[in-house]
């Protein structure tokens, strides 16, 4: 026996589906568990990857970038969309190349933080987020692409956490910190 909150709502009709290369906008009427018809709008986007790059005990970040949605410049880990036909690892490697100039040959280890994808979902957005940790060899990186570094120490980890406002970057960072580094700080 399922409760009301566990019942799946039924799609009554789809009154709009608008595709672009970045997203699909969908308008639907859904029938809830009480039989009421509700109008819902949502956006479907390609899944995303965020990569936490580490080189010689330093977390690497690209220059802060302007975010139109929040109207400010923010500090973020390298991230991007997973293109059709691309594996998650290929998307992570391409993201590191694009944002930090890191070649695939310079990645000594690429560790997925999650294999199922975390739902980045609201009534208006729908995608999955995959996190990776990339260990980078001692190759000299271009200073104009690596704008900020943080040591893997408790004090700097706390400082970085204070400076990350993107909830997706924070989720990847905290997952790494709890699963891979927490025992080093005790």
Number of domains: 2
Our measurement of the CA-to-CA distance between the termini, rounded to an integer number of angstroms, reads 45 Å
Largest sheet: 7 strands, mixed
Strand content: 35-45%
The shape, in one word, is elongated
- Helix proportion range: 10-25%
Unreliable segments of 5+ consecutive residues: none
Query: Averaging pLDDT over every residue, what do you get?
Result: 90
Separate helix tally: 3
CATH level-4 homologous superfamily of the largest domain: Nucleoside Triphosphate Pyrophosphohydrolase
The CATH class of the largest domain is Alpha Beta
Q: Structural class, from secondary structure content? A: alpha+beta
Q: Cα-atom Rg, whole angstroms?
A: 20 Å
**Would you report the number of β strands?**
12
Sequence of secondary-structure elements: EEEEEEEEHEEEEHH
Oligomer: single chain
Give the CATH architecture of the largest domain: Alpha-Beta Complex
CATH-defined fold name of the largest domain: Nucleoside Triphosphate Pyrophosphohydrolase
Description:
The protein is α+β, with helices and mostly antiparallel strands and 186 residues long. It folds into two domains: 4-44, no CATH class; 48-185, Alpha-Beta Complex (Nucleoside Triphosphate Pyrophosphohydrolase). It contains three helices and twelve strands, in the order ββββββββαββββαα. It has helices at residues 88-100, 154-163, 167-181; strands at 10-19, 24-31, 37-44, 48-55, 58-61, 65-67, 72-74, 79-81, 107-112, 118-122, 125-136, 148-151. Strands 4, 5, 8, 9, 10, 11 and 12 form a seven-stranded mixed β-sheet that branches. Strands 1-2-3 form a three-stranded antiparallel β-sheet, with no helix packed on it. The model has no long low-confidence stretch (mean pLDDT 90).
């Amino acid at each position: 026996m399922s409760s009301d909150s566990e019942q799946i709502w039924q799609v009554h009709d789809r009154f709009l589906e608008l595709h672009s290369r970045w997203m699909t906008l969908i308008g639907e009427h859904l029938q809830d568990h009480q039989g009421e018809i509700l109008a819902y709008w949502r956006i479907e986007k390609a899944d995303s990857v965020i990569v936490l790059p580490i080189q010689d005990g330093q977390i690497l970040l690209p220059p802060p970038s302007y975010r139109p949605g929040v109207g400010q410049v923010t500090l973020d880990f390298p991230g991007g969309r997973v293109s059709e036909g691309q594996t998650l690892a290929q998307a992570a490697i391409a993201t590191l190349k694009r944002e930090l100039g890191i070649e695939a040959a310079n990645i000594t280890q690429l560790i997925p933080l999650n294999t199922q994808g975390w739902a980045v979902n609201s009534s208006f957005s729908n995608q999955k987020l995959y996190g990776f940790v990339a260990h980078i060899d001692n190759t000299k990186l271009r200073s104009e692409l690596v704008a900020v570094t943080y040591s893997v120490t408790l004090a700097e980890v706390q400082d970085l956490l204070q400076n990350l406002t993107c909830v997706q970057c924070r989720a990847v960072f905290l997952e790494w910190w709890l699963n891979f580094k927490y025992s080093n700080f005790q």
